[in-house]
TrEMBL record:
Residues 569-596 are annotated as: Disordered. This is Ral GTPase-activating protein subunit beta. GO terms for biological process: regulation of small GTPase mediated signal transduction. It comes from Merops nubicus (Northern carmine bee-eater). Keywords: GTPase activation, Phosphoprotein. Residues 571-585 have a biased composition (Polar residues). Component of the heterodimeric RalGAP1 complex with RALGAPA1 and of the heterodimeric RalGAP2 complex with RALGAPA2. Heterodimerization is required for activity.
Amino acid sequence: PTTPDSERPAQALLRDYALHTDTAAGLLIRSIHLVTQRLNSQWRQDMSISLAALELLSGLAKVRVAADCSERRRAISSVCSYIVFQCSRPAPLHSRDLHSMIVAAFQCLCVWLTEHPGMLDEKDCLKEVLEIVELGISGSKSKNSEQEVKYKGDKEPNPASMRVKDAAEATLTCIMQLLGAFPSPSGPASPCSLVNEATLIKYSRLPTINKHSFRYFVLDNSVLLAMLEQPLGNEQILIRGTSGRFAWAQQLCLLPRGAKANQKSFVPEPRPAPKNDVGLKYSVKHRPFPEEVDKIPFVKADLSIPDLHEIVNEELEERHEKLRNGMAQQIIFETSIDQKSEEEWRKKSFPDPVTECKPPPPAQEFQTARLFLSHFGFLSLEALKEPANSRLPPHLIALDSALPGFFDDLGYLDLLPCRPFDTVFIFYMKAGQKTSQEILKNMESSRIVQPHFLEFLLSLGWSVDVGKHPGWTGHVSTSWSINSCSDEEVPEQDDLVISEDVGASIFNGQKKVLYYADALTEIAFVVPSAVESLTDSLESNVSDQESDSNMDLLPGILKQQSLTLELFPNHTDNLNPSQRLSPTSRSKRVPQGRTIPPMGPETKVYVVWVERYDDIENFPLPDLVSETSTGVETTANSSASLRSATPEKEVPVIFIHPLNTGLFRIKLQGATGKFNMVIPLVDGMIVSRRALGFLVRQTVINICRRKRLESDSYSPPHVRRKQKISDIVHKYRSRQLEPHFYTSLFQEAGLKNCNP
């Protein structure tokens, strides 16, 4: 109920009626204002209305209309105020339903932040959102208007519930890692990196690299680091956390980027060249004694030794001449040697490479783990010690990758999804049909169905190749796989019939599916189809004008020559129509060595296009439930079982009936209970052709979110990943003493320590 104008404040009336509601922006602002006002006044006590209002706000966040930032800020502040009110209610009023309302509010807040990341550029908005996150995680704010500031480290964690805490942590992850970073370079199908150990080994092209060349560490029991120590020019680090897997290529850089670009290696400053021609050069004849010695008069003692010429006779003169000639030759020889050495010295480069003092060349190979952990401050003595009075492990833990089963658990962690995933199965029901086989055969050719149905399919999502798709494909056996596709193309089989008109059955999950993803969820749209015999495939190749006109609606997707309707030609010829199963109902074999982790409650929705509205009562839902296996519904996660865990009457079904006016009538089935009154589509609604695809997709997202809110066994993706990392730490922790740990950092990766 809405408040009459007579009971509303005059200022609110003037503000509302002053808006230009005849424009798209005015209508959006008016809608946000009315919903936020009622949400924090009349509706916050009612769970069903609150959930619907939050879903409406989430839908309004996706409307691309230029509006004032203050109006968007109003929506975010309203959701934050709603969370504060619900968390501050007395303890006796806290129940699972109340906590579900808080979780839904956090999800609505994430939608607004991912659709409008620029809102957090405002300081006040960022502060308000982070205070709400703190309230959800710890149970109270650090700063209140009346109390003093209480630091987060001094507070005792007391959240409203673990579900509320998980929702607040998911919001914090969304703020820190998704805002402005989606879609990632790997595409919207994967918010994480597609690089893992196998990829690095493949593209390093070094024969010495294998899976044991990595060092593994865990930080704060929530972040798993894999470091590759090989001379690749840069250091490769894989980071596995609660929000996914990320790859970083790092390089040790001690120079500015400009200097690094101009010179490849460090070169010291050269010395200046000597200038020998500077100044005057004097020829000085050196004396053995100073000139003053000659002025001293001789005494008798000086004359006691006669001069040489006084005692020389003929014999001594001959010997003296010989000595004089030898001395002259020696002088000439030594003079020539001096001149030659001086010329050689002049020809030498300066400085002399033999005697010059040079700096050592810079190191080209580094021990990545030791330097990285040291530079980031993780190698302190306190980081390796067990926290006092706590069961938590140390801040830094080394893992032993040589233990059996380590890489299997690592692959198990990579299989855990980073976002909630949903599945939609789409059927086409012609007038008068009642059996499941008749309905499944409608997808075999585009000429059988209405053109608007094919247009509706392409408005739900885009086509992806199951074998190369890194996201959700509709079945756990083929989802979230990387490095599963070889570069070599599979050779075509000549014995298969090439069919161009495969209709919507191309999206049956065997080779292709329709896919949609945003920052918070991913959906696979699967079109189940029956397996035909070879004769039926030949008959389906006959085309007519109607087929050609319908095929134009699927450009480049349905017209693929390498596809055929006959998937098993050797086994289906002798089967009658009642014995043929759809590809989705067959057991999909899990790849060898791949363990499927538990995925929580199954969230799938059926969308049925009915030509005649009265045929809705004859829709064979029990028969088609067995045709829609996702692998999630089995208890032991064995995709061989087709037993559905969801009762048939609770499976949500959206019926779409095209009217002669060009509009579409909606019929909802299975949406009962307080958690299933979902919008934007409601029972009996008439929608336009343009809005049909978006409204169906948004309704599916809201239905599956309600399903997860209702489930007791559901854990958010970041919680499951954190639990798996803790399990890996418990199983593969390296039990080394501190001296042995530090010693191992100086050894090559893969070497065993020789512990005494």
